Amino acid sequence: MRSDSRLRDLLSCVALANLVMMKVWLQLLPFKLARDLWLAHSPANAYVAAMLDTVVLGVALWCVVLVAGRWRWTAVAIWPLLHGLTLCFVLNGIRSNYDWSLGTVFMALGPAGAVLLGTGLLVVLAFVVFVFVRTRDAITRQPHVVSLLCVPFMVVTFGQSALALGHGESEAEFLPHARRDGQHLNKPPAIPVVWIVFDELDYGLAFERRPRDLSLPALDSLRSVSVFATHAHSPGGTTSVSMPALLTGQVLEKTEPLGARDMRLTAADGTTSNLAIAWTVLDDMHARGLRTALFGWYFPYARLLRNVDVVEDFPTLLYADYDNLFLTAAMQLRSLMETLYYSPFGESMAIRHHIAITKGMQREVVHYLRESRNSGFVFLHYPVPHSLNIYDRHARTFGANLSVQGGYVDNLALVDRLLGEVRGAMERAGTWDNALVVVSSDHHLRVNAFDHVIERQRVPFIVKLPHQAGGVTVDTHCETAITRALVLQVLDGRLRTPAEVADWMVAASARVAVRAGTVLPSR
Question: pTM for this structure?
Fold first, then answer.
């Protein structure tokens, strides 16, 4: 009977551990092959690590139960304590998966709604405590009942993991993350091109509603010698739609990942194509004899796109996505005790990773632009000012910015710093003045904790022509989906002056808006 009791305790503890892993399981499940596109490595390690962590954590809890069973008062208290801790991990996993925080709740529901939600949660908590008090005698006599009721969830998690291991893609499908191919050029380009996309760069906070104490000298300096659109719209409201639309110049309705190495594109007219074989601005540049380079985050550019001579992607961090099993297992356990911004170990994994890819990308970009006088065409997709908030503009230092209201504003200062460093590298290489430089964003600021103004798809659109000395403002509706065509028009000599570019942008944007079914504002 004693061995049966211990086996029952072990099964109960593993079932609880499986629930403690809720944060990880919600990221991994259900298994979808399409998710592989966003991963740096095969998810096989993540699934094996999650099962391993569940078993190891379950055995550890079982050992605690065995030790607690030596004394009567601890034997009575241990199971309610484990159930309470498990509930906390479950709730935090759900909160983390849906990105719920005090800031997002207040923005979504308003003060009254947040208070109402808090009151409702307190009522639920009070009900749980009431039920526990009324049934504590039964729970004390049969403490395993609650735990054993959770065993079927293990069938789901471990079963889905087995499915993923059986149908997932191999590590080879997730490589490479960087390529340095032969130089595809015969002579220096007459017009170097640098196209910069800052992820989630909001027009209003960067320009129109900029806080008084926020200085953005690099952006302001660029604006003063550029064609500047005040009412530009991105191709979509998400990175997964906008980036393929910008690269291909298509008006896209939606996109759908197709595993680790491809994505289906659905145009506004219903036609479909695949990104891996689609003709992009990179193909345009190669056709004109220009060397191409791309540095970007989020998308696996190195394994997705062809005709890139120099490419390096900087993937986002998903469920401790590493190529080492034991490192993955350790980081998954660590993630259970962290939020995006807080960690008992110092900086959270998410903050460290976001800082690392921002710094790492900028280091590679500056080196390439400074050392390469034959840069040709360069495409940059930066991970800022998109969350996480990783910069303190007053101290000019990197780190977790815990200001709910001001974190994004500080990230805007980081955008300006990065742009200034790009310009400095090009000036040292002697390529800035005669370059075509485009700065825009993939989508608007979707959660605005600063002034709560959401302007859907309104983004900056700045175009500096070679040797441009003055600024031109375009107040008419523009679409950044025209950027690929705009670059070609300038390279082919069809657009030479800021006035010609401004007129062309308005006309081309009107045609794109018609194809997209956009209703243009009347002025």
Answer: 0.91
